[in-house]
């Protein structure tokens, strides 16, 4: 009886080891290029993806425009998460992405934020008073959140008025750092960045979505990842409940 028990234990250990080896052997990597506004959410998603599948997501962050330029120049990205719909659509049109693989993974929102507490309660009134030295935005030419910020300021009739006081970050992440470091008094940023902070940090105002065009963020499978099981698994994971819950937790809407 003892011999049978010992044999059973050895069999279980052997089976567990074999399964672990098989899992490791089947694990792979996927190179993912992600718009900077989605940094915090993507880090959580990448960790959850690795835990769930054994695959590793190697993630690069930059502005959507810069990422797309890199893709056009042959960068080895396999999945592209943009901060707009235009670049993924363009990737398909230019033969850089797998046809029919595009989908909306998030809809972004803007917020006005300052690292100073109790600076404002109504951000619109605060912007109109002009009681600040510098305001940060992302570059409207390369970053969709910067383009949306410009739309907000134009709607409020402030774009020309504040032009000399705007500091432009290459990405929305850099724009956030301008405010966090005190180099700008306030910034028109991604709501997700504000929600990632400890509750009550600074002053914030969620900008009405009617003040800017919808920030529809699409993902697409690039041709370089078409035959990579890890890339295909990542696309599936991004569409699933775990990734969607993480996404909404950072203030994004999902379809």
TrEMBL record:
Annotated keywords: Metal-binding, Molybdenum, Signal
InterPro entries xref list: AvModA-like_subst-bd (IPR044084), ModA (IPR005950), ModA/WtpA (IPR050682)
Binding site for molybdate: 64, 172
CDD domains xrefs: PBP2_AvModA (cd13539)
Signal peptide positions on this chain: 1-27
One GO BP annotation of this record: molybdate ion transport
Keyword Transferase in annotation: no
Any GO MF annotation of the entry: metal ion binding
Keyword Metal-binding: yes
Subunit organization: The complex is composed of two ATP-binding proteins (ModC), two transmembrane proteins (ModB) and a solute-binding protein (ModA).
Family: Belongs to the bacterial solute-binding protein ModA family.
Protein name in the entry: Molybdate transport system substrate-binding protein
Organism taxonomic ancestry: Bacteria, Pseudomonadati, Pseudomonadota, Alphaproteobacteria, Hyphomicrobiales
């Amino acid at each position: 009886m003892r011999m049978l028990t010992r044999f059973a234990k050895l069999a279980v250990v052997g089976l567990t080891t074999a399964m672990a080896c098989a899992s490791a052997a089947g694990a792979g990597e996927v190179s993912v290029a992600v718009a900077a506004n989605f940094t915090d959410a993507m880090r959580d998603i990448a960790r959850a993806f690795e835990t769930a599948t054994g695959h590793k997501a190697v993630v690069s962050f930059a502005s959507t425009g810069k990422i797309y330029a890199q893709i056009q120049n042959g960068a080895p990205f396999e999945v592209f998460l943009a901060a707009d719909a235009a670049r993924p659509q363009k990737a398909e049109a230019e033969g850089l992405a797998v046809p029919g693989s595009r989908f909306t993974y998030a809809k972004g929102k803007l917020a006005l934020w300052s690292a100073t507490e109790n600076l404002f309660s109504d951000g619109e009134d605060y912007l109109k008073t002009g009681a600040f030295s510098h305001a940060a935005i992302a570059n409207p030419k390369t970053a969709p959140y910067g383009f949306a910020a410009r739309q907000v300021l134009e709607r409020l009739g402030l774009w020309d008025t504040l032009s000399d006081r705007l500091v432009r970050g290459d990405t929305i992440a850099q724009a956030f750092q301008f405010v966090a470091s005190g180099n700008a008094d306030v910034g028109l940023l991604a709501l997700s960045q504000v929600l990632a902070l400890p509750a009550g940090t600074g002053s914030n105002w969620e900008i009405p979505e009617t003040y800017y065009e919808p920030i529809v963020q699409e993902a697409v499978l690039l041709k370089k990842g078409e035959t990579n099981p890890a890339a295909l698994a990542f696309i599936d994971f991004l569409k699933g409940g775990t990734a969607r819950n993480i996404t909404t937790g950072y203030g994004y809407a999902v379809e």
